[in-house]
What does this fold into?
Amino acid sequence: MPTIQAILSSTELPDSPTARLDLELLLAHVLGKSRSYLHTWADKTLSDEQLEQFAAAIKRRQDGEPVAYILGQQGFWSLDLEVAPHTLIPRPDTELLVETALELIPATPANVLDLGTGTGAIALALASERPAWQVTGVDRVSQAVALAERNRNRLKLGHARFLLSNWFEAVAGQRYQLIVSNPPYIAADDQHLSQGDVRFEPSSALIAGADGLDDIRLIIEQAPNYLNAQGWLLLEHGYDQAAAVCQLLSARGFNQVESRRDLGGHQRISIGRFDHE
It folds into this structure.
């Protein structure tokens, strides 16, 4: 029977910067072990069942399916989250939303809303850092709400909750100190939709009209009706959309409007504060 070392040496994945990492994650998952186990016990052999499971996982990855969907999990912030094909895969760049929210809002009691929560990644990351906050995540996809709720239960974050809602519909009459969102922001004809991992992700969580700004326009227009005085709105957007989003925020009456850069140096989020008269 082949050893762990032999499998790692002989298995090929599509050329990518993370090919070796992908390979180790898939093998560790099949074995039910950590990646460090692969190197500590490199001479261990796999059973026929493990080999079959590993071959199936490798085939899915060779076909382009994201590793996170194959594993059924993805790390975000300090959390390990369940993921599924009806939600976006949480990405490191989105952690900028979490960092900025923690910077802007003190650790005292506050109501926070996460629009289009998906796996619950942003809402749960905020809840994990701020036990005094009441965090609500909403999503229009019932499977996403159920998945976010499973993540919440497993992480034991009782001050977070998840609701089925098309944007603000289920929170009428509520006010928040902070509203965050990573909404769909890709244009319908964007060539990237046919490349890489996004081919496997739900288009409803990616595409937002001809210019990718339809959902962002709606959120900016409606958010002041749900913000407390001096409440903040934080939005993730495309790498080339910062100027347009900031213009929309300013035109709606937001103050202290600015954009911030992600790990790759792109202007990834834009923020604004709404001062009610």
In short: The first strand starts at residue 73 and ends at 76.
